[in-house]
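Table S2 (text version). Query chain:
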Amino acid sequence: MANGVVVCPGAWNGLIAKTIAKTGFDACYVSGGATANSVGYPDIGLITMDDMCRKIQEVACASGLPVIADADTGFGDDDAAAKTIKEYDQSGAAGMHIEDQEFPKRCGHLDGKTLVSQEEMVQKISIASESRLNNDFVLIARTDACGVEGMNAAIDRGNAYREAGADMIFPEGLSDEEAFETFSQGCEGLLLANMTEFGKTQHITTGQFGSMGYNMVIFPVTMQRVAMGAVTHCLVQLLKEGTVEGFQDKMQTRQDLYDLLGYVPSEPWEGNQAE
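Corresponding structure-token output:
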């Protein structure tokens, strides 16, 4: 936790999840977009609830950390959202967010999004909240309304979603500190911010988010982008030079990997035990 803010880097596999835990973070995040990307799909709602549950289980088991997970639009109607909150809980998630886009959804930082009505989303949140298996599970309502209907509508939706049973509100696609500040002043209570790169949001530190009243900050695709940038550069070098020798100092060493996995070659491995 940094400055009272829960920082959740995104994990798209167990190895990244272990690294997040070992580095000292208190929670991690499973992104639908990063999960889709990892199997070669864009973020357009092609990943199923079962796909996400398997990924949540993998990340939770490997990290031993609370996992916040993306549930897109709840994978269907109200009954589907009710099933999702139960399945996510049983898979090891500590919380999830559902959004007010129509299906098929779009990445929150793209234009051309369409929303369900506020009344429809309120009903979905209410039913999902009532379907929780335990009261500690955190239900987060995401609204994409700012870029579609404007800030006032986003604030109205956020307040309505909180009243319907959401524990935390997630305003998506905000541009700068002024926008985040305006939203937090109009929608009091627990708030989540998305600090993604190459989107609509300028870089804002976790401390700045905390000072504006945000309690959790997710970095959903950051680690995947860092990894894929390094992989691409390494592959280009291999193709051009026929060797990766010049890239070796940027690699994780064999010993560092073994240490991360808790593996000693001369001893039996005790399994995937998060520290």
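Notes on Table S2: The first helix runs from residue 14 to 23. The longest strand covers residues 138-143.
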